[in-house]
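Sharing a chain and its predicted structure for anyone who wants a worked example. Both blocks are below, sequence first, tokens second.
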Amino acid sequence: MSADAARPNAKDPSAAGAKEQREVILAAVDRLAPALAASGLDELEIQAGELRVRIARPTPAVAAPVAPAPALATGASSAQASSSPFGDPAPGMRFVAAPLTGVWYSAPSPGARAYLEVGSEVAIGQVVGLIEAMKLFNEIKSDVSGTVTRFLVESGTLVKRQQPVLEVDPR
């Protein structure tokens, strides 16, 4: 289901309630994720009434080690050098990041061929995967064109908003 199909109808009160519930759950995940990161736990589950939220530490995809980028000669601060809480792409590469928190899927359905593979060409606006949030599947589109060099999360993994999901060589 595309993000457009998931938009609630303003005249449908149940759709408005679903949107509010989605916002509450996403806010809960955004609040709990730092607690999970700061702890030694691999997963955290909280239940309050009808609301039940479970987050788990992502399983990193196996990737070849990348040599650290040389220090910037302009005297940039270390805060600028690591601008993303998820790390920086390899030199010359760009990330495609998750626009929302949810479960990442690299294929349109179980058993189907993945949207992309390492070495695939990707264009701006091309669907690269799906994120499930509140039982709605949102198409994730690339904001960069080039060649896919690596996937940073496995299908079925919980991703946080702005977390990189794949790396692209824009050359």
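Comments welcome. Helices lie at 13-38, 78-81.
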